[in-house]
Specification:
33% helix, disordered N terminus, alpha+beta, 22% strand, 2 helices
Length: 113
């Protein structure tokens, strides 16, 4: 896909993957006391842990326990969307863009939520 529709679809795919992975991460963290990309994959088989061909959004990192955790999803464009929970319960939604890449759905302030 090209143009703004392609960037928008890539972002939505990454965000949907993030939401699905987030549910799996919370289950892994609460039920097993820890989370990793591999654990998420055992809970939700549809999650990818590598881009594949053609490239699709995938879980690039996952870690944490019941109260603190971090989840990162890499989009086909190379942008990484991260959701993190601090011990205080505060959630942060950040994103990074590889040098020279299109920002796509990642705002210039690096916060998507």
């Amino acid at each position: 896909m090209t143009g703004s529709h392609g960037r928008r679809n890539a972002r939505y795919g990454a965000l949907l993957t993030a939401l699905l992975a987030l549910v799996a991460l919370v289950l892994a963290a609460v039920l097993t006391g820890g989370a990793s990309a591999a654990k998420l994959k055992t809970i939700e088989k549809s999650l990818l842990t590598a881009a594949g061909t053609p490239a699709k959004p995938y879980v690039s990192a996952a870690s944490g326990a019941a109260k603190t955790w971090s989840l990162s999803i890499r989009s086909p464009s190379g942008n990484t969307y991260t959701i993190a929970r601090a011990a205080t319960g505060v959630l942060t939604f950040s994103c990074t863009v590889p040098s020279g890449s299109n920002r796509g759905g990642c705002p210039s302030n690096g916060r998507w939520g």
